[in-house]
Amino acid sequence: MSFTPGTIWQDRSVIVTGGTRGIGRGIAELFARQGAAVALTGRDAAAAAKAAGDLARATGGQVCGLGVDLRDPEAIEAMAAEAERRHGHVDVLCANAGIFPEKPLRALTAADIDEVLQVNLRGSMLAVRACLPAMERAGHGRIVLTSSITGPATGFPGWSHYGASKAGQLGFLRGAALELAPQGITVNAVLPGNVRTEGLDAMGEDYLRRMTSSIPLGRIGESSDIAHAVLFLASDEAAFITGQSLTIDGGQTLPESLDALTTTA
Question: Is 143 helix (H, G, I), strand (E, B) or coil?
Fold first, then answer.
């Protein structure tokens, strides 16, 4: 798949879960601008329809919105079937949807843990399973999971359940990549650091300043930074890459300590 708009991307169909806002919306927008047919999902059907309409007008692309609760296996199966019905095939799944409610470990309930694991981990796994028949019929497929540096590489108080779900995604992708390789389907993941989204902005200016000071490149990431990495992993140029995770964090996970950011050679 070329990165040039108007070429082979026009023949490809992409599903982006959690595409109504934040990173998912950025991913959906980039694929639409490249000419792909995009089905974006959100738990709220009205919000998904509005986001799809806004992106279609902004990009001139083919975008539809689907209301999908990723806690519901039947809704996930219906998502894949509807995307294939509308666009003729499913070539790319961006399993991006996720929630990150903050709660300290001592206050976590079983319901809190179940909800995060159901949406972030179980929802991703079920979305992949649901898209497999269409990808097998197409004879190829690209699956890109949105994990995080939190869990696989770092930790943060209040997000132990979130970190567990994101680390679990990487365990899943390795087994899935092996199972699906014979069908020409690749499975990879992106691990964003701090990216400017509605959720991050809600953390407040003090949080943003502290996080920015911990990033060697000196800025918070943008949704487009993640979207371009996803676009590459979904492309033909990445056909020989599977079972891998790409960290996109401005170097945030590099320093041994904060002293490493202030010491000059």
Answer: strand
The per-residue pLDDT for range 148-162, each reduced to its tens digit, is 999 999 999 999 999
In a domain, residue 211? The reply is: yes
List residues with catalytic annotation: 162
Cβ neighbourhood burial of 227 (10 Å; 0-12, 13-18, 19+):
buried
Confidence of residue 208 (pLDDT cuts 50, 70, 90): confident
The whole-angstrom separation of Cα 88 and Cα 126 is 21
Ramachandran angles phi, psi of 66, nearest 5°: -125, 130
Collapsing DSSP to helix, strand or coil, 25 comes out as helix
- Kindly report, residue by residue over 74-115, the tens digit of the pLDDT: 999 999 999 999 999 999 999 999 999 999 999 999 999 999
Backbone angles phi and psi of 109, in degrees to 5: -105, 165
Q: 47: phi > 0 → left, psi -120 to 50 → alpha, else beta; which?
A: alpha
Q: What is the 8-class DSSP label of residue 256?
A: S
Of the candidates 42, 64, 46, 66, the one whose C-alpha atom is nearest the C-alpha of residue 55 is: 64
Q: Are 94 and 27 in contact (CB under 8 A)?
A: yes
Asked, for residue 235, whether it belongs to a domain, the answer is yes
* 232-258: pLDDT as tens digits: 999 999 999 999 999 999 999 999 887
Whether 265 maps to a domain, the answer reads no
Find the CATH number of the domain harbouring 111: 3.40.50.720
| Pairing assessment for the beta strands 37-42 and 13-16 based on DSSP bridges | parallel
Which structural domain range is residue 183 located in? 8-247
Tally the domains of the chain. 1
**Integer Rg of the chain from CA:** 18
Angstrom distance (rounded) from CA 158 to CA 102: 5
This prediction's pTM: 0.93
For residue 264, is it within any domain?
no
* CB 190 within 8 Å of CB 244: no
